[in-house]
Amino acid sequence: MRAKIFGLIALMAGFLNSTPAFAAEPLKSSSSASCAAVTFNVTTLGCLGFFGGNLVSGGGPKLTEALAVTGSLDPSANSLLERLDLHSWQDLHVIDFDKVLSGRTVIGIHFGGGGTGYNGTGFWLLDVPDYTDKITYTSNVQKGISNAGLYLTQIPAVPEPSAWALMLLGFFALGGRMRSRHAELSNTVCYA
């Protein structure tokens, strides 16, 4: 019995001594005036652009060029996960991705010329709350965007291993107390 108690104490000490995981430092936002032209309803950690032409492309040299830019924002942004073509009948200030977004997210937005003469693509590193699929933006670049691309998002957070261990330890303690209480009651002799 003492061995079990000492084992549990050692296990608790090990869990309490574990260190939590810390997120990496966010990138510093660019002070470029072109990045300030677009603001989002989520925290912007960094921006690169605007680049001439439509870099939100499904393949070819434009995709290679876009991945070189997104890799500068976050090295994990190494593929185009989703591409949206936005139309005039949609809400022009909402980008609604099919994928659920969470944490560090890299997106690209192409502002098409549409007769205004402007044709450029910008890329942003955003800090998105868990389980988000829509991002709202405001822009003084021009009226609308033609397409958007998703290059990186994270899986929603899972509790720390030490939190799980503490929960399991609580269940074990509760179960042990219930067993010892049951043993105390079954050993008691009652006479009527």
TrEMBL record:
Lineage: superkingdom: Bacteria
UniProt signal peptide: 1-23
Pfam families, per database record: PEP-CTERM (PF07589)
Ranges of residues in domain Ice-binding protein C-terminal: 157-179
Keyword flag Signal: yes
Keywords per UniProt: Signal
Protein name in the entry: PEP-CTERM sorting domain-containing protein
Organism: Croceibacterium salegens
